[in-house]
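hiii, so i know i said id send this last week but things got crazy w the move. better late than never?? heres the sequnce for the chain we talked about at the cafe, plus the structure i predicted for it. fair warning i was half asleep when i ran it
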Amino acid sequence: MDTYFFSMERRTIVAIVICCLTIMIGQPVWAQVKNYYGEKSTAPVIPPKEQRIRVIIASDAATEVDDVWAISLALLYPERFEIEGFVGGNFDYGMLGEFGPESIEKSTALIRTILSKAGMAGKYPVYAGSQPMQYHSTSNKSPGVDFIIKRAMAGTPENPLWIIGLGSATDIAAAYLQEPAIKDRIVVFWHGRTQWPFKAYNYNIFGDMHAARILFHTPLPFVLFDTGGQLSASMEDSKAHVKPYGELGEYLYNYRLKNEQWKSANRGFFDMGDIAVLIDPEIGKWEAATCPTIEPDLTYNFYRSNGKLLRCYDADREKTFELLYKKLKEKYEKN
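okay and structure toks below
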């Protein structure tokens, strides 16, 4: 009889523990994350800086100043980036206006403008991306998504296509949902700047939560750029090191004048960091981390993890801007 009551007592304790866990994390661990597509086997490795990498840049370019500077930085480093093209992405609201459904057209047009200012008009294809996902497992077709799939499938696991996401994850997620075979031929490098390890909280996630979760819940090799707020520069620095150098430098400087917040010496040029740490990995600080899944409230769930990701958690401010200043001066300084 003592054994019986002891057994009942243990069962009661176990039941209480399970109940508490359920309350704390919302539901039993084994019942979480319905939209799950497979585990990431290993964390990606950033290629040595001497090696060229194939890239597509997917950017909500018209939403912020940092995209404009980041794309320009990438264009200045052909020795590192074999750029295959660009995809103009969606966003709900930008700092120059509430664009919504027209945001894709705005982003696509602005990318073409940047190419023109860099003396590269028509050099790279620029495609319009998709509208945000309405449901967790369905995606919208677009020329940009078709382009990502086509270029991904043209590669190999040994020479993958790196997709640099500087905005919502819509077009990357849509490409995977429409052609899952790309998982062996791409590496996703996406700007998250989240509240790690607690919450996937960022503007890029708000724009398409379903798409962001796809990046974490699929076997896609994944690099999370999780920093960038420290990447700021004064207007005086921009006037001295950017404005004098060619049509591109003058354009980048003047673009800062379009919004009062962009003139602040503390304004983050977040997306520049993504490009900088890919140009020179030593600029960043990295860790191979457990890839969490993401709950509907954007909480990171490490109880239901999904293999490994590579996380960049810091980027050197001075070295990031020096990459831009150096190349602008080399290319445009008058003899």
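btw Residues 1-33 have pLDDT under 50 and may be disordered. thought thatd interest u
miss u guys!!
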